[in-house]
Amino acid sequence: MDIVYLDGHYIPAGEARISPFDRGFLFGDSVYEVIPYFRGTGFRLREHIARLEHSLRAVRIRSGRDWYAILDRLVELNGGGNLSVYLQVTRGDSGSRSHAYDASLEPTVFACCAPVRDFASVAAKDVKGLAAIVTADLRWHRCDIKSTCLLPNILVLQQARDHQADEALLLRDGLVTEGTSCNIFLVRQGVVYTPKRSSEILGGITRELVLELADENGIQYQEADIDYDALMAGDEVWITSSTRGVLPVTRIDGQPVGDGEKGPLWARMFELLTRYQRRLMTGE
Ligand code: PDD
Fold it and tell me: What cofactors does the UniProt entry give for this protein (predicted)?
Protein backbone atom coordinates (compact mmCIF):
# COMPACT_ATOMS: atom_id res chain seq x y z
CA MET A 1 0.00 0.00 0.00
CA ASP A 2 3.09 2.17 0.01
CA ILE A 3 3.18 3.46 -3.52
CA VAL A 4 0.93 6.38 -4.41
CA TYR A 5 0.31 8.22 -7.66
CA LEU A 6 0.80 11.98 -7.74
CA ASP A 7 0.75 14.02 -10.94
CA GLY A 8 2.33 11.46 -13.25
CA HIS A 9 4.68 9.87 -10.70
CA TYR A 10 4.48 6.63 -8.75
CA ILE A 11 6.28 7.33 -5.48
CA PRO A 12 6.44 6.07 -1.87
CA ALA A 13 3.57 7.56 0.16
CA GLY A 14 6.00 9.31 2.51
CA GLU A 15 7.49 11.31 -0.35
CA ALA A 16 4.20 12.69 -1.69
CA ARG A 17 3.86 16.47 -1.27
CA ILE A 18 1.26 18.94 -2.46
CA SER A 19 1.25 22.71 -2.27
CA PRO A 20 -0.76 24.43 0.49
CA PHE A 21 -2.11 26.60 -2.35
CA ASP A 22 -3.67 23.61 -4.00
CA ARG A 23 -7.38 24.44 -4.30
CA GLY A 24 -8.29 20.96 -3.08
CA PHE A 25 -6.59 21.82 0.22
CA LEU A 26 -7.79 25.43 0.49
CA PHE A 27 -11.39 25.07 -0.71
CA GLY A 28 -12.20 21.37 -1.03
CA ASP A 29 -12.25 22.29 -4.75
CA SER A 30 -11.97 18.67 -5.87
CA VAL A 31 -13.78 15.43 -6.60
CA TYR A 32 -12.97 11.80 -5.88
CA GLU A 33 -13.76 8.14 -6.37
CA VAL A 34 -13.29 5.05 -4.22
CA ILE A 35 -12.94 1.91 -6.32
CA PRO A 36 -12.39 -1.54 -4.83
CA TYR A 37 -10.23 -3.99 -6.73
CA PHE A 38 -10.80 -7.67 -6.03
CA ARG A 39 -7.95 -9.96 -7.03
CA GLY A 40 -6.61 -7.09 -9.09
CA THR A 41 -9.87 -6.46 -10.99
CA GLY A 42 -11.72 -3.17 -10.57
CA PHE A 43 -15.28 -3.49 -9.25
CA ARG A 44 -17.48 -1.89 -11.91
CA LEU A 45 -14.49 0.17 -12.97
CA ARG A 46 -16.15 1.57 -16.09
CA GLU A 47 -19.09 2.85 -14.02
CA HIS A 48 -16.77 4.44 -11.45
CA ILE A 49 -14.79 6.20 -14.18
CA ALA A 50 -18.02 7.39 -15.82
CA ARG A 51 -19.10 8.87 -12.46
CA LEU A 52 -15.71 10.54 -12.05
CA GLU A 53 -16.14 12.12 -15.49
CA HIS A 54 -19.63 13.28 -14.45
CA SER A 55 -18.23 14.90 -11.28
CA LEU A 56 -15.38 16.57 -13.21
CA ARG A 57 -17.73 17.92 -15.86
CA ALA A 58 -20.19 19.17 -13.24
CA VAL A 59 -17.52 21.24 -11.45
CA ARG A 60 -15.64 22.13 -14.64
CA ILE A 61 -12.32 20.53 -13.71
CA ARG A 62 -10.40 19.38 -16.77
CA SER A 63 -10.13 15.64 -17.33
CA GLY A 64 -8.32 14.05 -20.28
CA ARG A 65 -6.25 11.48 -18.36
CA ASP A 66 -6.10 7.78 -19.02
CA TRP A 67 -7.66 6.85 -15.67
CA TYR A 68 -7.62 3.14 -16.48
CA ALA A 69 -3.87 3.12 -17.14
CA ILE A 70 -3.12 5.21 -14.02
CA LEU A 71 -5.12 2.97 -11.72
CA ASP A 72 -4.08 -0.36 -13.23
CA ARG A 73 -0.41 0.54 -12.80
CA LEU A 74 -0.97 1.74 -9.23
CA VAL A 75 -2.76 -1.49 -8.30
CA GLU A 76 0.01 -3.53 -9.89
CA LEU A 77 2.73 -1.60 -8.02
CA ASN A 78 0.87 -2.24 -4.76
CA GLY A 79 0.80 -5.98 -5.34
CA GLY A 80 -2.68 -6.38 -6.87
CA GLY A 81 -5.08 -8.52 -4.86
CA ASN A 82 -7.86 -6.88 -2.83
CA LEU A 83 -7.38 -3.15 -2.58
CA SER A 84 -9.51 -0.09 -2.34
CA VAL A 85 -8.24 2.66 -4.62
CA TYR A 86 -8.83 6.29 -3.71
CA LEU A 87 -8.57 8.74 -6.60
CA GLN A 88 -8.80 12.49 -6.10
CA VAL A 89 -8.66 15.24 -8.70
CA THR A 90 -8.36 18.84 -7.52
CA ARG A 91 -8.66 21.96 -9.64
CA GLY A 92 -4.93 22.47 -9.10
CA ASP A 93 -2.37 24.70 -7.42
CA SER A 94 -3.25 28.35 -7.96
CA GLY A 95 -0.16 29.71 -6.14
CA SER A 96 -2.28 32.02 -3.97
CA ARG A 97 -5.68 32.01 -2.31
CA SER A 98 -8.51 33.37 -4.39
CA HIS A 99 -12.07 32.09 -4.75
CA ALA A 100 -11.95 32.81 -8.47
CA TYR A 101 -10.04 30.28 -10.50
CA ASP A 102 -8.02 30.28 -13.68
CA ALA A 103 -9.56 27.77 -16.08
CA SER A 104 -6.14 26.87 -17.44
CA LEU A 105 -4.91 25.43 -14.10
CA GLU A 106 -3.40 21.97 -14.31
CA PRO A 107 -5.49 19.63 -12.10
CA THR A 108 -3.70 17.77 -9.30
CA VAL A 109 -4.25 14.03 -9.49
CA PHE A 110 -3.61 11.86 -6.46
CA ALA A 111 -4.34 8.15 -5.97
CA CYS A 112 -3.52 5.70 -3.21
CA CYS A 113 -4.53 2.23 -2.07
CA ALA A 114 -5.90 0.86 1.19
CA PRO A 115 -6.72 -2.69 2.25
CA VAL A 116 -10.27 -3.86 1.58
CA ARG A 117 -11.98 -7.08 2.62
CA ASP A 118 -13.83 -8.75 -0.22
CA PHE A 119 -17.44 -9.29 0.81
CA ALA A 120 -17.42 -12.79 -0.73
CA SER A 121 -15.05 -13.93 2.02
CA VAL A 122 -17.61 -13.35 4.78
CA ALA A 123 -20.53 -15.71 5.41
CA ALA A 124 -23.97 -14.09 5.75
CA LYS A 125 -24.27 -15.49 9.28
CA ASP A 126 -21.12 -13.61 10.30
CA VAL A 127 -22.32 -10.22 9.05
CA LYS A 128 -23.22 -7.98 11.94
CA GLY A 129 -26.46 -5.98 11.87
CA LEU A 130 -25.71 -2.26 12.07
CA ALA A 131 -27.18 0.41 14.31
CA ALA A 132 -28.07 3.77 12.76
CA ILE A 133 -29.40 7.12 13.83
CA VAL A 134 -31.49 9.43 11.68
CA THR A 135 -30.43 13.04 11.49
CA ALA A 136 -30.76 16.13 9.30
CA ASP A 137 -29.05 16.11 5.91
CA LEU A 138 -26.92 19.26 6.12
CA ARG A 139 -25.26 18.87 2.71
CA TRP A 140 -25.59 21.03 -0.41
CA HIS A 141 -28.00 20.20 -3.24
CA ARG A 142 -25.49 18.61 -5.63
CA CYS A 143 -24.86 15.34 -3.82
CA ASP A 144 -24.70 13.62 -7.24
CA ILE A 145 -21.21 15.15 -7.49
CA LYS A 146 -18.66 13.10 -5.55
CA SER A 147 -17.03 16.13 -4.01
CA THR A 148 -14.40 16.00 -1.26
CA CYS A 149 -16.33 18.63 0.74
CA LEU A 150 -17.35 16.04 3.30
CA LEU A 151 -17.63 18.07 6.49
CA PRO A 152 -21.39 17.42 6.95
CA ASN A 153 -20.84 13.69 6.36
CA ILE A 154 -17.99 13.61 8.86
CA LEU A 155 -19.91 15.49 11.55
CA VAL A 156 -23.04 13.36 11.36
CA LEU A 157 -21.04 10.13 11.29
CA GLN A 158 -19.38 11.28 14.50
CA GLN A 159 -22.83 12.09 15.90
CA ALA A 160 -23.77 8.44 15.15
CA ARG A 161 -20.60 7.24 16.87
CA ASP A 162 -21.44 9.39 19.91
CA HIS A 163 -24.70 7.39 20.10
CA GLN A 164 -22.85 4.05 19.75
CA ALA A 165 -24.29 3.71 16.23
CA ASP A 166 -22.45 2.71 13.06
CA GLU A 167 -24.13 4.97 10.50
CA ALA A 168 -26.22 8.11 10.20
CA LEU A 169 -29.19 8.08 7.82
CA LEU A 170 -30.00 11.50 6.44
CA LEU A 171 -33.35 13.23 6.27
CA ARG A 172 -34.07 16.19 4.00
CA ASP A 173 -37.50 17.82 3.71
CA GLY A 174 -38.99 14.85 5.55
CA LEU A 175 -37.48 12.27 3.17
CA VAL A 176 -34.61 9.86 3.65
CA THR A 177 -31.79 10.56 1.20
CA GLU A 178 -28.89 8.22 1.99
CA GLY A 179 -26.20 7.49 4.60
CA THR A 180 -22.95 9.38 5.20
CA SER A 181 -21.11 7.24 2.61
CA CYS A 182 -23.73 4.76 1.43
CA ASN A 183 -27.12 4.46 -0.25
CA ILE A 184 -30.19 3.16 1.53
CA PHE A 185 -32.77 0.47 0.83
CA LEU A 186 -35.96 -0.41 2.67
CA VAL A 187 -37.97 -3.65 2.48
CA ARG A 188 -41.67 -3.64 3.17
CA GLN A 189 -43.93 -6.64 2.54
CA GLY A 190 -41.48 -8.26 0.15
CA VAL A 191 -40.85 -5.14 -1.96
CA VAL A 192 -37.50 -3.32 -1.98
CA TYR A 193 -37.63 0.49 -2.00
CA THR A 194 -34.84 3.00 -2.52
CA PRO A 195 -34.93 6.77 -3.05
CA LYS A 196 -35.00 7.88 -6.68
CA ARG A 197 -31.78 9.14 -8.22
CA SER A 198 -31.59 12.89 -7.98
CA SER A 199 -29.12 15.63 -7.15
CA GLU A 200 -29.90 14.95 -3.45
CA ILE A 201 -28.09 11.59 -3.46
CA LEU A 202 -24.98 10.04 -4.93
CA GLY A 203 -25.75 7.66 -7.79
CA GLY A 204 -24.13 4.70 -6.04
CA ILE A 205 -22.48 2.07 -8.20
CA THR A 206 -23.59 -0.65 -5.75
CA ARG A 207 -27.09 0.85 -5.60
CA GLU A 208 -27.33 0.41 -9.38
CA LEU A 209 -25.99 -3.15 -9.19
CA VAL A 210 -28.44 -4.10 -6.43
CA LEU A 211 -31.33 -2.86 -8.59
CA GLU A 212 -29.93 -4.79 -11.56
CA LEU A 213 -29.64 -7.97 -9.49
CA ALA A 214 -33.17 -7.47 -8.14
CA ASP A 215 -34.42 -7.11 -11.71
CA GLU A 216 -32.62 -10.21 -12.97
CA ASN A 217 -33.79 -12.33 -10.05
CA GLY A 218 -37.46 -11.42 -9.86
CA ILE A 219 -37.17 -9.35 -6.68
CA GLN A 220 -39.77 -6.61 -6.76
CA TYR A 221 -38.41 -3.11 -6.30
CA GLN A 222 -39.47 0.48 -6.62
CA GLU A 223 -37.57 3.77 -6.62
CA ALA A 224 -39.73 5.87 -4.33
CA ASP A 225 -39.79 8.49 -1.59
CA ILE A 226 -39.18 7.12 1.91
CA ASP A 227 -40.19 9.26 4.87
CA TYR A 228 -39.24 8.76 8.53
CA ASP A 229 -42.40 6.81 9.39
CA ALA A 230 -41.95 4.48 6.41
CA LEU A 231 -38.32 3.94 7.39
CA MET A 232 -39.28 3.05 10.96
CA ALA A 233 -42.06 0.73 9.74
CA GLY A 234 -39.74 -1.19 7.38
CA ASP A 235 -39.30 -4.95 7.70
CA GLU A 236 -35.66 -4.57 6.66
CA VAL A 237 -33.25 -1.71 5.99
CA TRP A 238 -29.98 -2.11 4.08
CA ILE A 239 -27.13 0.18 3.17
CA THR A 240 -24.86 -0.24 0.14
CA SER A 241 -21.46 0.97 -1.00
CA SER A 242 -18.65 -0.35 -3.17
CA THR A 243 -16.38 -1.08 -0.22
CA ARG A 244 -19.07 -2.43 2.13
CA GLY A 245 -21.35 -4.27 -0.31
CA VAL A 246 -24.86 -4.63 1.12
CA LEU A 247 -25.20 -4.53 4.90
CA PRO A 248 -28.28 -4.93 7.11
CA VAL A 249 -29.33 -2.16 9.51
CA THR A 250 -31.11 -3.81 12.43
CA ARG A 251 -31.59 -0.86 14.80
CA ILE A 252 -32.57 2.72 14.00
CA ASP A 253 -32.80 5.43 16.64
CA GLY A 254 -32.66 2.72 19.30
CA GLN A 255 -35.64 0.80 17.84
CA PRO A 256 -35.38 -2.63 16.19
CA VAL A 257 -35.92 -2.70 12.42
CA GLY A 258 -38.67 -5.32 11.86
CA ASP A 259 -37.90 -8.10 14.32
CA GLY A 260 -34.41 -6.69 14.89
CA GLU A 261 -32.72 -9.53 12.98
CA LYS A 262 -31.05 -9.59 9.56
CA GLY A 263 -33.85 -10.10 7.06
CA PRO A 264 -34.39 -12.84 4.45
CA LEU A 265 -34.33 -10.46 1.48
CA TRP A 266 -31.08 -8.98 2.72
CA ALA A 267 -29.64 -12.53 2.90
CA ARG A 268 -30.80 -13.15 -0.68
CA MET A 269 -29.28 -9.90 -1.98
CA PHE A 270 -26.07 -10.53 -0.05
CA GLU A 271 -25.84 -13.93 -1.74
CA LEU A 272 -26.48 -12.44 -5.21
CA LEU A 273 -23.91 -9.71 -4.70
CA THR A 274 -21.38 -12.20 -3.33
CA ARG A 275 -21.93 -14.46 -6.33
CA TYR A 276 -21.47 -11.48 -8.69
CA GLN A 277 -18.25 -10.56 -6.94
CA ARG A 278 -16.92 -14.13 -6.98
CA ARG A 279 -17.52 -14.28 -10.75
CA LEU A 280 -15.64 -11.01 -11.10
CA MET A 281 -12.74 -12.36 -9.07
CA THR A 282 -12.43 -15.60 -10.98
CA GLY A 283 -12.90 -13.86 -14.32
CA GLU A 284 -15.86 -16.06 -15.35
N1 PDD B 1 -18.72 6.47 -0.66
N2 PDD B 1 -23.57 7.82 -0.99
C3 PDD B 1 -22.50 8.50 -0.57
C4 PDD B 1 -22.70 9.85 0.03
C5 PDD B 1 -21.21 7.94 -0.71
O6 PDD B 1 -20.12 8.65 -0.30
C7 PDD B 1 -21.06 6.64 -1.27
C8 PDD B 1 -19.73 6.00 -1.46
C9 PDD B 1 -22.23 5.96 -1.68
C10 PDD B 1 -22.17 4.60 -2.30
O11 PDD B 1 -21.65 4.66 -3.60
P12 PDD B 1 -20.91 3.43 -4.27
O13 PDD B 1 -21.85 2.27 -4.24
O14 PDD B 1 -20.63 3.91 -5.62
O15 PDD B 1 -19.66 3.13 -3.45
C16 PDD B 1 -23.46 6.59 -1.54
C17 PDD B 1 -17.37 5.98 -0.76
C18 PDD B 1 -17.24 4.49 -0.62
C19 PDD B 1 -16.51 6.78 0.20
O20 PDD B 1 -16.77 7.97 0.32
O21 PDD B 1 -15.58 6.23 0.80
Answer: pyridoxal 5'-phosphate
